[in-house]
What we know:
Elements: H1 3-20, E1 39-45, H2 52-62, H3 71-78, H4 86-91, H5 97-100, H6 104-120, E2 123-130, H7 154-172, E3 175-183, H8 190-199, E4 205-211, H9 222-234, E5 237-242, H10 248-256, E6 262-265, H11 273-281, E7 285-288, H12 290-295, H13 307-313, E8 317-320, H14 325-328, H15 332-343, H16 347-359, H17 365-378
The chain binds 2-acetamido-2-deoxy-beta-D-glucopyranose (2 copies) and zinc ion.
Amino acid sequence: MHITGRLAAAVIGCRLLSALSSSRLRSTMAEPVVFNKPKIELHVHLDGAIRVQTILDVAERRGITLPGKTVEEMTSVIIVKEPATLTKFLGKFAEYMHVIAGDREAIKRIAYEFVEDKAKEGVIYVEVRYSPHFLANTKVDPIPWQQEEGDLSPDEVVRLVNEGLRQGERAFNIKARSILCCMRHMPSWSMDIIELCKTYRHQGVVAIDLAGDESLNCEAFPGHRMAYEEAVRCGIHRTVHAGEVGPPSVVKEAVEVLKAERVGHGYRTLQDQALYKQLLAQNMHFEICPISSKLTGACDPDFTKHPVITFRNDQANYSLNTDDPLIFNSTLNLDYNTAHKYMGFTEEEFKRLNIKSAESCFLPEEEKRELLQKLYKAYGMTRSTVF
Ligand SMILES: *[C@@H]1O[C@H](CO)[C@@H](O)[C@H](O)[C@H]1NC(C)=O
Ligand SMILES: *[C@@H]1O[C@H](CO)[C@@H](O)[C@H](O)[C@H]1NC(C)=O
Ligand SMILES: [Zn+2]
């Protein structure tokens, strides 16, 4: 941006700050906030972003005994503190998913509270993802988390989440949409997922995702490929977790076979320079999750060597996201602080990547334009000064 643009940004920034001083952007968290401006988040799991207090409340109401009785105790059971393996990380969900799954009130509540938490972080638009099957206890095979069979189907789970998100949007004045996840180890669920995406595409569901163990590729599991083909046919947006711990070939498959429009993580793309150059040229969007990538063992724990530094230096199209703030005991601001402190991210870059995130979001064109206008205004930019 030019000097004049920067001055204008400073002036508008000040006005914005005073206008917002009493509002949600004033964080109550202990850590300093390096980018206290409206943000976009595109990669965060609903079931990895639950309040610990809510888990305790619901467990008490349902008479479920947990290994911790207080927020502190339960937090230390759930969180991953040191770089772990993906298996260990995935095991963390088993500590609490049985409390929330199958419970209508709890599912609506976690969606509502999620929106409140995002609003507090200064997020103005979020796409939150989850597997409806993991929260159901009927019409799902096998029934997850060792629940007894009940009467809550994946379809009703989606309706409950939609409702919780919508109530949260109204209460906290931000926009929240959802992405439904297929699971790599459960290809038989994937056709349900695409049908749910189609049914609820005008009620908050914007895309399909594929999550889980990347060693299970799609050659061997045609269920995912068929679901993604149907998504293409119906104009349902597509993202895929790929190249987080899996090799660049998983990224290639995501883009070429599943026709992903965004890549979840994608760090290992850098191991195949030809593929990386091709995706850069295509303006492929990478959903980067810094703290997550350290604690799952996906990336070198030394943040100064993080792949996102290469993405930034190449002015790639990417976003910064939390992934699973419950399990990493993190917040979006902590991810931004990390990028600032260890990777030299500047205010200008934070603005740029949020503009890219908005451009890459799965809203309809008209709403996307509105969202971009909001960001330009908040960042003190006019269209002509945009990167
Ligand atoms: C979780 O994060 C909070 C805020 O950064 C910190 O005060 C707390 O000690 C952390 N909890 C654990 C168990 O590490
Ligand atoms: C960034 O990537 C997304 C998804 O591929 C795309 O829709 C968007 O247009 C890209 N942004 C730019 C500026 O090309
Ligand atoms: Zn993820």
